[in-house]
Amino acid sequence: MVQPADAEQRVTRRLVAWLHANGVHFARKRYMMPAMFEAYFQTFEDPEGGVALTARLAAFREELARRQLTGFVIPRADRQQNEYVPPSEERLAWLTGFTGSAGLAIVLATKAAVFVDGRYTLQAAQQVDVRAWSIASLVDPPPESWLAEHLAAGDRLGYDPWLHTSAAVERLAKACAKAGAELVPVDSNPIDSVWTDRPAPPLGPVTIHDAAFAGEAEADKLARIRAEMTKLGVDALVLSDSHAVAWTFNIRGADVSHTPLPLSYALAPKDGRPTIFIDRRKLSDSARSHLERNADVREPDELTDALTRTAQSGAAIALDKATAADALSRLITSAGGKPVGGNDPVALLKAVKNPTEIAGARAAHRRDAVALARFLAWIDREAPKGTLTEIDAVEALETFRRETGALKDVSFPTISGTGPNGAIVHYRVTRKSNRRIVPGDLLLIDSGAQYEDGTTDVTRTIAIGDPTDEMRDRFTRVLRGHIAIARAVFPDGATGAQLDTLARQFLWQAGLDFEHGTGHGVGSYLSVHEGPARISKLGTTPLRRGMILSNEPGYYKRDAFGIRIENLVLVTEAGIAGAEKPMNSFETLTLAPIDRRLIDHRISKKEVAWLNDYHARVRREVRPHLDEATKLWLDAATEPFSLE
């Protein structure tokens, strides 16, 4: 997390924000002061490529040969399976050039492949040298199918047990066994041997997440966790997910980009004090004192000894199957303990927000809505001139959010894609890919903010000039799916998989679809992508009141345009009179106009009623906090839509 360094930066940023708000824009390279280059939370540098990456692959293969390994598996992961990882853990990007948040590579003696899911197919094709790497599916078929085809009997496939879960290792082992090959755990990662300028591990300072935002004391959370351990019948629980540690002990940090995460572990016995394993250099006296009220504090390298001592008594130790490294399970087993893999109970406790967190989320979204209204008004005024670029949009939106005075970080790198770039689901604009926003295109902008009281995530698709009939048809189909989720009423215990079809039905009617889930969970000043609940065909966790999820159907026409409409929603009681069973519904938290110019008349009266009610609420809650010019824009943007 990069913070402004001095008063000059703060003054300069206020000047830039004022100029943006008043319709003045300028090329950053020519006019912006050097200090401002450090002011943004996101950068636009192009990833490395070409000869450097080819040389890295050759050096890596030499290292594998030296270790008598035929191949190696490189996941996009750190030791805790975080979505965003520190620079020191970006092994996949360093070796392949692919910078997406999910992926895996396999290097064999003569073949190599990068595996990505549907969100990153286009991005991988642009970033990876296809002369050295093939690009394959991460999901269907999975990488194990590629291994079965390319491994030979007697091959020795290496892996780092700290970077894979036990379930992932089991899949790799089956593929190796089928081919007559051997899966070999390594003591040290061979990439680290050839990555000579690898960055040092992060040392972001730990901060206390105040009770005014957390809403529950650490001791009370620990009591609930112990109750869950009793249900599981285990003697101890390893918190391998740093998000779980942060939530349990009401701390935040700055070790990874865009998520206030302190990289750490914890070991919680069923009886007695838990232990937190975290680098002491991250802790101020107040932070250490805060932690020591409820736990012992140890260095990270003491985890293995502490876990070994616990396991030596034959203890049953719970591990999160989604984040616990295979190395932990192997250690427990070798010490005589019993690893119990399953779902981390903290994940579900954390996903159900308490009243304080819910109030904070509402406040954060109202605050964010003011910045969004100012940004959307600015885009409508300036973009039709044809002088703005995708990077200009990213910088302006972040500037408006900074002007709230409460922004801690963006919650992920802003996706700002116009024209064909908008069709890349997780597009990240760079100086090389930066495209001018011109009339006739759609601008898809997906962004979010980290505030102490809540995390936001919102996507709007904006017509620049006159949209085509095709654009309006696709947008309307996406909007109708979005409204179907927003208006859904469902029984308590229903899962995201049961709702996912609602978002796709109107696209399916035209033979269309989108290759990502409809919604993901969202944390409270934590990860913008939080489990375990989600709205997708894989969403098997029941949706519970207090969960916050995204509602974001989309459509992407390759080499042409992209459409996505995203609001965050809160699961609440439906309040149906005479209902024979508990029923739930969604409260929409995001407050930003949806572009009425992109809606055609295939929309129904009930959907129009939802849209007009939503826009009336946006006016009611956001308008009082805007300047006069933006009020006029908001009034026009939220006028009632009519089918006539």
TrEMBL record:
Creatinase N-terminal domain mapped to chain residues: 56-188
CDD domains: APP
Keywords noted in UniProt: Aminopeptidase, Hydrolase, Metal-binding, Protease
All residue ranges annotated as the Peptidase M24 C-terminal domain in the record: 583-641
Entries under InterPro entries matching the protein: Creatin/AminoP/Spt16_N, Creatinase/aminopeptidase-like, Creatinase_N, Pept_M24, Pept_M24B, Peptidase_M24_C, X-Pro_aminopeptidase_P
GO cellular component: cytoplasm
Record's keyword annotation contains Metal-binding: yes
GO molecular function: metal ion binding; metalloaminopeptidase activity
Domain Peptidase M24 stretches: 361-573
Keyword Metal-binding assigned: yes
Enzyme Commission number: 3.4.11.9
Similarity section: Belongs to the peptidase M24B family.
Protein name as it appears in the record: Peptidase M24
Organism: Nitrobacter winogradskyi (strain ATCC 25391 / DSM 10237 / CIP 104748 / NCIMB 11846 / Nb-255)
